[in-house]
Structures are given as C-alpha cells and as structure tokens.
Design goal:
four-stranded antiparallel beta sheet; globular; alpha+beta
C-alpha cells in the first residue's frame, strides 16, 4: 500500500502525539445487517458465553457472505487509516473478530485491547434509548465513551484549548464502523432498552517486520 505524507505545518506549528479516530457509515449496510443479525443470533444460541469468550474464535474465518463483506470493508478502512497517517510502506496484518450482544443492563467495563495495533467495532443493531430510570439524567444508553490516553492532561486546559475534553462519547447508528488505536481506553454504557444491542468488534494485529521500527536520527 502507498500513502501520501501530510505537508509540514505552517509557521513552525506541529501536532505531536495525535490520537486518530475514524468513524464512518458503510454503504450497503442495510441489507448486510439483516443477514449479520441472523448470523450473530445463531452464534449466540450455540454458544452461551459468546460475548465474554471473545478470544476463542474468529468470526472472519467463517464462510458467510455478509461476514466476508464486512471483513473486506474493515480491511479497506484500515488501509484508509494508514494512508491518512502517511504510512507509505508495506504493512501486513490479520483481523480477529467477535460478536457482542448487549441485552438490558449489559455493558463493558473501561478497557483497552492489548496486543492489537488498532481496534474497532461495527454496529449491526442499535436500539433507541430506553425510558428514564431513577432520577439520573446523565445516563447514556447505547453510547460508547473513549478516554484521553494522556493522564490528567486536561487539568490545565482553558477555553478553546483542544485538550480540554477528557472524553469523547457517541451514540453510533447501525451501519457505523469505528476504528481507533488499540491502547485507547473505552467504556460501553449499559443498554437500557429491552431490545438487544448487537455489534461485531475486531482487532488489527500486525504481522511483525523489522521495517516497522522507527529510524533513529
């Protein structure tokens, strides 16, 4: 693969240590999601601990047309991510994918993905937020939150300082794919709907090469 390096910043300014996050809607997802939903539900019926035992298999090895469509879309998204960063040398990786079904009250603790260079999620089904529960007004059913990896960096931020936001929260729609560095901590908020929230997560694991090592200048 080839990429295009970004031009140097004007007047000496340079952004160091950026965290690049990608969010896009996949074209043609409506038809694919109908098939993916059936596939994931069948997997769940056959494996009771499917969501928590995510390292035991790889959905992308199944000969399922919808899953292979998604695998191709994920690979294209990874290529676009590397190109955006100007990483214009050959990079080889493998994908490992698993399904998640979050029913009423289910959530995922804050975590990252060790050994993964990039991680991501594709949303098959996202229910509308449920009704109010108790007196809390800050509940974010169906949302996912990502946290600034630089500890306490926001403590000295002032107005219009781009580092002021310690977290980024979004409520994805069905058909959305997200991609982020594997070290980024994230939290999946409890599902407060009676309908299950269905997604397919994946890791991008590099096939190591010494060519990846940064040059020492």
């Amino acid at each position: 693969m080839t990429g295009k390096k970004e031009p140097p910043a004007a007047d000496g300014f340079k952004t160091l240590w950026p965290t690049i996050f990608l969010q896009r809607s996949l074209p043609g997802h409506e038809a694919a999601n109908r098939v993916l939903l059936q596939t994931v539900m069948a997997q769940d019926a056959a494996q009771a601990d499917m969501t928590t035992d995510y390292l035991s298999g790889n959905l992308f090895t199944l000969e399922d047309p919808a899953l292979q469509w998604l695998k191709g879309c994920v690979n294209k998204t990874v290529i676009d991510y590397f190109r955006h960063l100007g990483m214009d040398y050959p990079i080889n990786w493998s994908l490992q994918a698993w399904a998640n079904i979050n029913r009423l009250g289910d959530y995922h603790d804050a975590h990252n993905h060790p050994r993964a260079y990039l991680s991501g999620t594709y949303y098959v089904r996202v229910p509308k937020p449920g009704g109010e529960i108790g007196t809390r007004k800050d509940l974010r059913s169906g949302c996912i939150t990502f946290y600034d990896p630089r500890g306490a960096v926001n403590m000295t931020a002032i107005k219009r300082d781009p580092y002021i936001e310690a977290e980024y929260t979004l409520r994805p729609a069905a058909g959305t794919v997200l991609l982020w560095p594997g070290f980024l901590n994230h939290f999946v908020h409890p599902n407060l709907s009676d309908e299950p929230r269905v997604s397919i997560s994946f890791n991008v694991v590099l096939k190591w090469s010494d060519d990846y090592l940064p040059a020492q200048e």
